Amino acid sequence: METDQTKALDIHGKPYSRVALVLIILFTTFAGTLNQTSLGTAIPTLMKDFDISMATAQQATTWFLLVNGIMIPVSAYLMTRFRTKWLYEVAYILLFLGMLLTAVTPAKSEFWPLFIAGRALQALSVGITMPLMQLVMVNIFPEKQRGIAMGLSGLVVGMAPAIGPTLSGWILEKDHVILGLTLSDSWRSIFVFPMIVLGISIVLGLFFFKDVIPNRKANLEWLSLILSTIGFGSFLWGFTNVATDGWGDMMNVILPIVIGIAFILLFGYRQLKLDRPFLNVRVFKNKQFTITTILVALAMMAMMGVEMMLPLYMQNVHGLSPLDSGLALLPGALMMGLMSPISGIAYDKVGAKRLSRIGFAILTIATFPFIFLGIDTPIHYVTVLYALRMFGIAMVMMPLTASAMSALPVKDAADGTAANNTARQVASAVVVALLTSVTQNIINNNTPAHHLMTENPIQYASKMADASLQGFHVSFGIGMMFAIAGFIVANFLAGKHEKKDIDVDYTKGVK
User: Fold this and answer.
1) What is the C-alpha separation between 165 and 161, in angstroms, rounded?
2) pTM attached to this predicted model
3) Ranges of H-type helices in 376-456
4) Cα(489)–Cα(356) distance, rounded to whole angstroms?
5) Which whole-number Å values give the CA distances from 51 to 47, 107, 243, 436, 511, in the listed order?
6) What is the pLDDT of residue 93?
7) Which of 346, 422, 435, 496 lies 20 to 30 A from 199 at CA?
8) What is the DSSP letter of 408?
9) First-to-last CA distance in the chain?
């Protein structure tokens, strides 16, 4: 492949514009990824419009993560079997249809499953495009430029989910007139911008998307697909039910999790026996890849531990509007976007070990004060702490992703990308279910007697705020524990100048 920064050759030997390809992918993935957190600020609105509980409303996130987690192991097969151009086109069309279905769902509780179906369709698409984006970056950039390439990806992976709450808060604040057209203050309008971007990208992709990932003919290993789907699906399904059914529910929580673990182990065992595995789990024989994958999962759990609960804290405890709660998180989003490319450049110079230790340390220190947030805590104080947390996340996420990909031979990049993203999404789904259930249970256990609402409304409101705070404090504390765990594990990474165990024969083990 040519070294020119704007022109390169695809797998057919035809020239293409690397800049155009990367810009379309980043811009469109940004619009798609926006959906992962854009509904976070809108959850109170969804609860009211659909007449559902917080735990039910959180299904918009947990189901997204569940389907996403099921699809990502399949992505390794799809990326190596089908042409890059048409895989992107089909995925973007599915994403557009999923957003459309969600946007037109009638706001009645009986239609909530239809809303979730739209989210599931979106997740199916994102489960393909996110690992596909990383693999494209690995294939079109040389290793010495991979850090900055992953840094650019960080603008999408980190900034889009962080900007989501601010954008949806702005939309929900009031009607907006743009170019003579009115954007209503409805949660439906949250999907307008992403759908416009997707529509444009689907058309541009016909001209600028190229086949840059080598393909090979491979039969779909159906037994592996079934084991993977049942395993990851059942495991994540059990966790999504925790918020509504509690940890002690045998049929809906414990049994699905146990079945999921059993099928995941069977899936892994079968992959080790196949000459051409559905997902090459032998990549985990590489110590550097395994440690970076664990750290990426811990970083996601630490990030979600606060990011998911902050909008609810600011709206339920401080009484902020969706817009104000979103604006309070905006500096953190900007910090993430600014630091991701910088951390990518730093990774190329100093490696992932030093950056991840510093990043997790900052994340831990910045999370600790959240455990003591109160009713009278100034919002600007929360904003500064959140921005500091996102600074730490930016120093961790992209260097670790780049390190994971660099630890493997290019021929195993598809399997590595799928494995890395599976760990990321499983971790996200687990922590969302965990924190939602913990927060909801603590609030329920400390909710004042209902009769107090009429006898002494002021006292009832005060006790209700205290109950909410107790739930949020525990969630923030759990988030900090994940950051501490990340700092500890980061010390086992190979340093910049240490020999990495990348010389691996994945059929026989480490040489």
Assistant:
1) 8
2) 0.73
3) 379-406, 413-446, 452-455
4) 10
5) 5, 9, 17, 18, 60
6) 93
7) 422
8) S
9) 29
| 188 CB neighbour count, 10 Å cutoff | 16
Q: Report the distance separating Cα 424 and Cα 283, nearest Å.
A: 16
Residues of the chain with pLDDT under 70: 1-7, 35-37, 40-41, 143-152, 154-155, 157-159, 161-162, 218-219, 243, 305, 495-511
CA 295 centroid distance within chain: 14
Amino acid found at 31: A
Rounded to the nearest angstrom, the gap between the alpha carbon of residue 74 and the centroid of all alpha carbons in its chain is 17
Both structure tokens of 123: 């997740």
- Give the whole-angstrom CA distance, residue 370 versus residue 484: 15
Tell me the pLDDT tens digit for each residue of 5-35.
445 777 788 888 888 888 888 888 888 777 6
Residues 302, 55 contacting (CB under 8 angstroms) = no
Place of tokens 């009211």: 48
Beta strand pairing call for 504-505 and 181-183: unpaired
Q: Report yes or no: 87 and 79 within 8 Å, Cβ to Cβ.
A: yes
